[in-house]
Design a protein that fits this description.
There is one protein chain. By secondary structure, this protein is an alpha/beta fold. Helix content is 41%, strand content 13%. The protein is built from 15 helices and 14 strands. The longest helix is centred in the last third of the chain and has 22 residues.
């Protein structure tokens, strides 16, 4: 019988990050102690003033413009200019139900091929698959902080050959490594030389621990798209509010994205868009400073207590991820490794193979957000001095899970 589902869709599987979250929940329901290091979700409460604006607008039921609330697009335009120095016209900003949807629309509209570094977020390749765009992987190394060098990028482009359209996806701070890209200007020069389009996934950029928002758009504004949203810095993942900023010269691309939006989700829910105006217009630097400081303290604790001769790991730089590499000869793939760790310790992580690495590399993504962010946040009076004792008190699951993981690695 001929399949009723398209071949490219049949190849898809459930998102690894969402799958590990569901698996962890099911194991917990069965009574198993699980340390939820697999799912990357902000543990912090959304700032109260933003929540109040949502409540005040909850009665509004009218459809907003397809492209999004004009006032919100204007605020995001100003926000991006302040952060990057690049002017994205409000007419070239599309409000989407999460940045994930923004990137999916871009993949569907784009006629070309995709180049993404390994490691990269689990959904880049499946979304390209949905858009029928071939994916090229550019493997990186720990020594280069999990980002490609300019030479590596150019070498890969020469190997691919001359292509009319090619998107390079960059994500900094990076999911899954938590690393920040320090050579954006060099990469921008190569991109300009080869006339690449860049999708700069900046969903974690407000969670850079050095408090320095870095965007490749600063060095290559004419062909850099920026995606972002409220899920990470604002803790509003379930609100599903994202955006895509399109370079001002690509009006046809913007027009196509808007048409796709009109034929899929129509418009993002109305109350959340009004609340997002406050999120992008209000002063939340103190909130962000405290969030970053807590995440840095927790991430540093994990790093200091996990690094060893058995576990190679770079220090945290942003977001809420670390990417440990385990020395072992027992397991054949990183999936087998993570399955054994979950069964034997209760620590749930995702294998490096989910992020584009060779399955034989014993890499895993560790998300250190399994703690009560509301309580931790409330008890921090001085974000400049968060002690290990505070981490132990307010992030006990992270501490205990790290100990179990460290002890397990020593017995490999």
């Amino acid at each position: 019988m001929v399949s009723k589902v398209k071949k490219n869709i049949l190849k898809l599987r459930e998102s690894a990050t969402l799958a590990i979250n569901e698996k962890s929940k099911n194991l917990i329901k069965k009574g198993k102690k699980v340390y939820r290091f697999g799912f990357g979700q902000s543990p912090f409460q959304i700032p109260e003033k933003i929540v109040e604006i949502l409540k005040k607008n909850a009665h509004k039921k009218e459809y907003l413009p397809i492209q999004g609330l004009p006032e919100l697009r204007k605020k995001i335009s100003k926000y991006l200019f302040k952060k990057t120095g690049v002017e994205f016209s409000e007419e070239n900003i599309l409000i989407t139900p999460g940045s994930k949807e923004a990137m999916l629309l871009m993949h569907v509209a784009f006629n070309g091929e995709i180049l993404t570094p390994a490691p990269s977020w689990v959904s880049y390749e499946p979304q390209a698959q949905i858009g029928l765009n071939k994916v090229h992987w550019l493997e990186t190394s720990q020594s280069n902080n999990w980002f490609p060098t300019a030479k590596e990028l150019e070498k890969k482009l020469r190997k691919i050959g001359k292509k009319k359209n090619l998107i390079l996806i960059l994500n900094s701070p990076n999911n899954p490594s938590g690393a920040v890209c320090e050579n954006l200007e060099e990469l921008a020069k190569v991109a300009k030389k080869y006339k690449l389009i860049i999708l700069s996934d900046e969903i974690y950029t407000d969670l850079s621990f050095d408090n320095n928002y870095k965007s490749i758009s600063k060095f290559y504004p004419h062909y850099t798209f920026i995606s972002g949203g409220l899920s990470k810095w604002c803790g509003a993942g379930g609100w599903r509010l994202g955006f895509l900023a399109v370079p001002n010269g690509l009006k046809d691309f913007m027009k196509s994205l808007k048409s796709l939006a009109s034929e899929s989700y129509s418009t993002v829910n109305t109350p959340t868009q009004f609340a997002a105006v406050e999120a992008y217009d209000g002063d939340y630097e103190e909130y962000k400073l405290k969030v970053r400081s807590i995440l840095l303290a927790v991430g540093t604790y994990v790093y200091n207590n996990l690094k060893s001769n058995e576990v190679l790991i770079n220090p945290p730089q942003g977001a809420f991820y670390l990417m440990p590499e385990f020395k072992n000869k027992k397991y054949k793939t990183s999936s087998e490794l993570c399955e054994a760790i979950l069964n034997e310790t209760g620590v749930a992580m995702l294998p490096g193979s989910d992020f584009g690495f060779n399955p034989k590399k014993m890499l895993a993504r560790l998300s250190y957000t399994d703690f009560d962010g509301v309580e931790f946040f409330r008890n921090v009076s001085d974000y400049k001095s968060i002690s290990q004792e505070m981490v132990k008190r307010y992030a006990p699951n992270v501490v205990e899970g790290t100990t179990k993981l460290s002890n397990w690695a020593k017995n490999l």
